[in-house]
Design brief:
50% of the residues lie in helices and 0% in strands. By secondary structure, the chain is mainly α. The N and C termini lie far apart (65 Å).
């Protein structure tokens, strides 16, 4: 009997779809953080209109460009949320490539100082 590598992974670490990945990624975060991150990720997935494993760098860059009307801190948070999800998905083995790894957020001016 041939053993599949996927079969050797603990069932708790298996990710079968985007929704499960997102739920696992949000697990344990505070209510406010979970709500904000979920809205950010939902906006991203609605924009790209493709399953996360099919999202490419061009999709991510187009979404970033669509955020131009937001304040810099809001754009940075939205990008940070999506990059965090993509990194998590890659670490979990759900995403073959972490397209967010090559995107660097724009620096934010410190307006409080």
């Amino acid at each position: 009997m041939k053993t599949n590598v996927r079969d050797s992974i603990s069932p708790s670490l298996r990710v079968s779809d985007d929704e499960r990945l997102i739920a696992m990624w949000l697990h344990g975060k505070s209510d406010n953080t979970r709500d904000a991150y979920y809205r950010d990720v939902l906006a991203f997935t609605d924009f790209v209109d493709a399953p996360l494993p099919r999202v490419g760098l061009e999709d991510l860059q187009a979404w970033i460009d669509s955020l131009a009307h937001y304040r810099p801190a809001t754009r940075a948070r939205k990008l940070s949320s999506v990059k965090s999800l993509l990194s998590f998905g890659h670490r979990m083995g759900y995403l073959e490539v972490n397209v967010g790894a090559v995107v660097k957020p724009a620096p934010i001016k410190d307006v409080l100082a």
